[in-house]
Design a protein that fits this description.
Blueprint lengths: L1 H16 L26 E6 L19 E9 L5 E11 L15 E9 L1 E2 L4 E9 L3 E12 L4 E2 L6 E3 L2 E4 L5
Parallel strand pairs: 1-10
Antiparallel strand pairs: 1-2, 2-6, 3-4, 3-7, 5-6, 7-8, 7-9
């Protein structure tokens, strides 16, 4: 009886480990927001998290105002034209609990639309600093329009231009 039980157990373990020994690579379907819309966007986009907001006033908050904020450096690059301003929609999360009762009306999701003047930089790049009060994290930044130096504008068609912030953040600015 013991021998049959041991044989059955060994057979079960051997059959369970066969898929783990497969040499065929598994290809998970993932959408990389940093590169997904590169073909349809007229400008290159990158977003980096910034440090430097270590001190937050705890005493001067109004009712319902959050002490949390995110600071993002958005850089746009255009090989053929000067960029003047942009309109973006930022998607992220708040400090609201993500697992809450069904009766709760508070959502952890937050969206904000911003009109940003761009600061010219080197290599046909332009940048803007986003200070996003109430955000605990930024999931993506969607490009809604771009205004060029010659007065021309661009708005997306069916395909949206968006970028996810770089997950790495420098600990200091020095």
């Amino acid at each position: 009886m013991r021998r049959n039980l041991a044989f059955s157990f060994a057979f079960l373990l051997a059959s369970a480990s066969i898929p783990a020994q497969s040499t065929k690579p598994v290809d998970p379907q993932r959408l990389d927001l940093r590169t997904a819309a590169a073909a349809s966007c007229p400008v290159g986009m990158s977003a980096k998290q910034q440090a430097g907001w270590d001190l937050v006033a705890a005493g001067g908050l109004q009712r319902g105002e959050s002490a949390s904020l995110q600071s993002i450096r958005l850089v746009l690059s255009s090989p053929g034209a000067t960029l003047v301003s942009t309109r973006v929609r930022v998607h992220g999360l708040t400090a609201v609990a993500h697992a809450d009762s069904v009766a709760s009306r508070r959502s952890p999701l937050i969206t904000r639309t911003l009109d940003l003047p761009l600061q010219p930089g080197a290599n046909r790049e332009a940048a803007a600093d986003l200070v996003l009060r109430g955000f605990t994290s930024v999931r993506s930044i969607e490009l809604l329009s771009v205004t060029y130096g010659d007065g021309g504008t661009w708005q997306p068609g069916e395909a949206a231009c968006r970028v996810a912030p770089d997950p790495l953040m420098l600990a200091g600015t020095r």
